[in-house]
Amino acid sequence: MGHKRILGKTTDFITGREITDTDDERYRQKLARFLVEVKGYEKDDVLPKRRIEMEIEGRRALSMVDFVVSVSGRPFMVIKYGPGSLVTRERPALAAARIMAGCEAPLTVVTNGEDAEVLDTVSGALLSTGIDSIPGRPAAEEMVRKTAGRPPLSAKQIEAEKRILSAYDYLEHDLECDADWCEPGAE
Length: 187
What we know:
Distance between the termini: 17 Å
CATH topology: tt1808, chain A
Order of helices and strands: EEHEEEHEEEHHEH
Number of domains: 1
Largest sheet: 7 strands, mixed
Structural class: alpha+beta
Number of helices: 5
């Protein structure tokens, strides 16, 4: 997970659970509030800290996304946070979104908490930039209707995305990891 400053404990805005307070977690919480208070999503629409468990050539791996946002019970947007450059996070975020939602989620967002890129999950095309360009719930509802019926990824395509994701964001499943991400109930 890298090094980070532990600042104590805080309460997760979405779940109400007590979690470890870090600089990165403060950005995640700010983003969660933004999604609900500014963009109009319900807390129930926003699933935080989603784990992706994979097996690649007999080895178990774990990756994570920060939020999966659903509309009308359907995945709409996968959000991956990371400090620093956004462009370096595009490909692993797209792979994670494709694995998790099988291209059902039309949008993938990469953010460093200050800026964001909104990507088309299927093509990988950059659609917009800036935190404010993240679509609100009304736009999400319309996009979900327009993209309904996209065919799921094949097993071969999913396997390729797992390999890509593991090249960027790979943790051995049995390694010690942050309890807020890896403990039961974090999924």
